[in-house]
Backbone:
């Protein structure tokens, strides 16, 4: 074989290698650019961050979360916010978006039921607050709950619980309101409230004390999720919803205190 042929073979081989590498790079870039944006209730912050990381590992897609009060997120979606998935803490808001043709109806599902409890700062002087009646103690100056008017459902069920316990009127002078359930927890963590009613899903043992409230004291915290009909990533959004209730997501959600319904 003469030198000219050898040079041609080497050049051809190098060209093939470059083309293969170029295609691989392009495919990788495409995968990395696939993204879904999830509007999620504040009580999901810890659980969804963990679920989201595993979903990214499995699919190669990116997941961006925007956490906030369910009502505010619903308003943003109505005003055209570019979300692909809405994970609500209150089924009512997803129902309302369905009635306005803003979600894909067949994607709506109940993905979890939440729980609430009484919380105090773990390293604060012992207040021995374990029951709702303990909130009346004089050493409890402030009690934090989510705003019933602006942060349903957690604000509403906190109010409902206190009303059913016959304590709502007696605690009026002590109540401070969080913009959402995460904000309510901040009141306790910063010492601006001696106690509060928070979501079990936000409870971290090394930071706060927590005593579960009997769920018969309030309406069920049914949490609903759906794909927004403006999405450009419908299949990936559906896959994310399935992932939450699947063999990987379900144990994580349950570890944060959510009750995952079967077959819904």
Residues:
């Amino acid at each position: 074989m003469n030198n000219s042929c050898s040079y041609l073979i080497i050049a051809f081989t190098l060209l093939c290698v470059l083309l293969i590498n170029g295609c691989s790079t392009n495919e990788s870039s495409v995968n990395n650019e696939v993204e879904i944006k999830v509007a999620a209730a504040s009580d999901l912050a810890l659980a969804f961050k963990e679920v989201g990381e595993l979903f990214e590992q499995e699919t190669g897609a990116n997941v961006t979360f925007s956490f906030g009060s369910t009502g505010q997120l619903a308003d943003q979606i109505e005003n055209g916010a570019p979300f692909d998935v809405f994970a609500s803490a209150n089924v009512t808001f997803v129902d309302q978006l369905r009635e306005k043709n803003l979600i894909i109806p067949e994607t709506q599902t109940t993905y979890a039921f939440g729980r609430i409890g009484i919380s105090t700062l773990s390293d604060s002087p012992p207040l021995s607050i374990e029951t709702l009646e303990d909130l009346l103690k004089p050493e409890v100056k402030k009690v934090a709950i989510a705003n019933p008017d602006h942060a349903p459902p957690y604000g509403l069920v906190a109010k409902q619980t206190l009303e059913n316990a016959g304590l709502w009127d007696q605690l009026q002078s002590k109540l401070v309101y969080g913009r959402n359930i995460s904000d309510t927890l901040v009141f306790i963590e910063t010492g601006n409230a001696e106690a509060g009613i928070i979501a079990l899903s936000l409870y971290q043992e090394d930071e706060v004390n927590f005593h579960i409230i009997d769920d018969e004291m309030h309406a069920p915290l049914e949490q609903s999720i759906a794909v927004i009909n403006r999405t450009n990533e419908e299949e990936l959004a559906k896959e994310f919803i399935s992932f939450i209730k699947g063999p990987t997501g379900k144990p994580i959600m349950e570890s944060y205190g959510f009750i995952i319904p079967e077959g819904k």
Notes: The chain has two domains: 33-113+220-255, 116-212.
